[in-house]
Known about the structure:
By secondary structure, this protein is an alpha/beta fold. It has a single domain (5-202), classed as 3-Layer(aba) Sandwich (Rossmann fold). It is 29% helix and 25% strand. It has a seven-stranded mixed beta sheet with strand order 5-4-3-6-7-8-9. It has a two-stranded antiparallel ribbon with strand order 1-2. Helix 5 (112-124) links the parallel strand 4 (104-109) and strand 5 (130-133). It starts with a helix and ends in a 13-residue tail after the last strand.
Amino acid sequence: MFEPQKYIDRRRRVLEKIAKRAPIDDKVIEAMKRVPRQMFIDPLLADRAYEDKPLPIAAGQTISQIYTVAMQTNLLKLEEGDSVLEIGTGSGYQTAILCELGYQVYSIERYEELYNIARQNLEKLEYNALLVYGDGFEGLPQYAPFDGILITCGAPEIPQELIKQLTINGKMVAPIGRGLQEMMVIQKISEQETKIRKEGTYRFVPMISGKVDFK
Ligand code: SAH
């Protein structure tokens, strides 16, 4: 893929700044240095791709702030080859980063329009994730269990159906709450028990049930 040098430089700069501000695994920063964020947004916004801010994508949704993507990816921390289910494909940016880390990636999006856009974005860059247009609250029982589940929209409460789809010792990284969310790392320690760690406050677009077809 050809990419103007200015994007490579800006990307390196913003990621080095984030790495200084928070203890994020080198592997995560290096993977993020390989993913061109400008390719996941409207070309008219390309010059703003490396502002560390959420930016608008289609269907009234947003691509998460770079810092938030780094934090969530770092909290998820899986091994190469592990399977991960992402809820909220959006632009496909976070999906690409999970692919760069060598995970086996599944991702669900409730807007058909975004599902199509993400599919094109990821195909162009030759990332192999399995994308599904559907309702994330249902998960993907046919591919479960997953070593990790990453939710990129604010869930009103911990989605219990998704906990069922985790392996024992698998973990879910999810912003939980209405309006503002608390980032939670939920480890499944047995069929009945979870252990929860809280990792700060964020604001995500809401996780909403049901899917929306392209109009
Ligand atoms: N990971 C995305 C972030 C997109 S914002 C990126 O990197 O661009 C969160 C996304 O979650 C939105 O696209 C929204 O439509 C989606 N979403 C909300 N509720 C959902 C649900 N129940 N199932 C699947 N996706 C959902």
